[in-house]
Design goal:
The complex is a heterodimer of chains A (about 110) and B (about 120).
Chain A: E1 4-6, E2 9-13, E3 18-24, E4 31-37, E5 43-50, E6 55-58, E7 61-66, E8 71-76, E9 85-93, E10 97-103, E11 107-112
Parallel strand pairs in A: 2-11
Antiparallel strand pairs in A: 1-3, 3-8, 4-5, 4-9, 6-7, 7-8, 9-10, 9-11
Chain B: E1 5-7, E2 10-13, E3 19-24, E4 31-37, E5 44-50, E6 53-57, E7 65-68, E8 75-79, E9 88-95, E10 107-108, E11 112-116
Parallel strand pairs in B: 2-11
Antiparallel strand pairs in B: 1-3, 3-8, 4-5, 4-9, 5-6, 7-8, 9-10, 9-11
Classes of the chains: A mainly beta (about 110), B mainly beta (about 120).
Chain lengths: ~110, ~120
């Protein structure tokens, strides 16, 4: 959706860190989410962040939120081949209602040896 | 397996036929959502149930689409007179929402991939 923008593709070397970026337009978002989708599969919830936080860490995942710039990022430390997938940023918010998520088009992460 | 399940996983049909998909949410989740995902795009919201009540429908949900959740548990999504533009992945998600539950975190099923010939 045009409310959420992500770069389409990211390629990293195994063991390096990956940073996937997302920008959104709806400043009323309460929660922002990162989902992972492997080929032919549904979406797996990775993590989420409340809009009054600026950082959340969960094992290899670090989420940074700059609410002023409406910018969200997901950092994956020590990226592995199993991390290859499409990553979707999503938010709730008034433009979509609090009960539905607005997704970006996804960033395809390719991890190479 | 206590996750969201969907059936069938794949459906191939001819244009003009009716199809029905089923979603079984996580047990005790009171909210259920349907999304549609086309190739290269993120999921787009179709409709949402709180228990058995359908509370919101997207403009994407034309008159040919109908969804039900008769007992507040499983849900069905029916598409009548399918068109080639209906070809997509149909995703179901569920969540537990209410006082003290925090974010309305949605958990997705594996999806039903529909191909209309």
């Amino acid at each position: 959706g045009e409310d959420v923008e992500q770069s389409l593709f990211l390629s990293v070397r195994e063991g390096d860190s990956s940073v996937i970026n997302c920008t959104y337009t709806d400043s009323s978002s309460t929660y922002l989410y990162w989902y992972k989708q492997e080929p032919g599969a549904g979406l797996q919830l990775l993590t989420y962040i409340f809009s009054n936080m600026d950082m959340k860490q969960d094992q290899r995942l670090t989420v940074l939120l700059n609410k002023k710039d409406k910018h969200l990022s997901l950092r994956i430390a020590d990226t592995q081949t199993g991390d290859s997938a499409i990553y979707f940023c999503a938010h709730d918010g008034l433009s979509g209602g609090y009960n539905k998520l607005i997704f970006g088009a996804g960033t395809r992460l390719a991890v190479h040896p | 397996d206590t996750g969201v399940s969907q059936d069938p996983r794949h459906k191939i049909t001819k244009r003009g036929q009716n199809v029905t998909f089923r979603c079984d949410p996580i047990s005790e989740h009171n909210r259920l959502y349907w999304y549609r995902q086309t190739l290269g795009q993120g999921p787009e919201f179709l409709t949402y149930f709180q228990n058995e009540a359908q509370l919101e429908k997207s403009r994407l949900l034309s008159d040919r689409f109908s969804a039900e959740r008769p007992k507040g548990s499983f849900s069905t999504l029916e598409i009548q007179r399918t068109e080639q533009g209906d070809s997509a992945m149909y995703l179901c998600a569920s969540s537990l929402a209410g006082p003290g539950t925090g974010t309305d975190t949605q958990y997705f099923g594996p999806g039903t991939r529909l191909t209309v010939l």
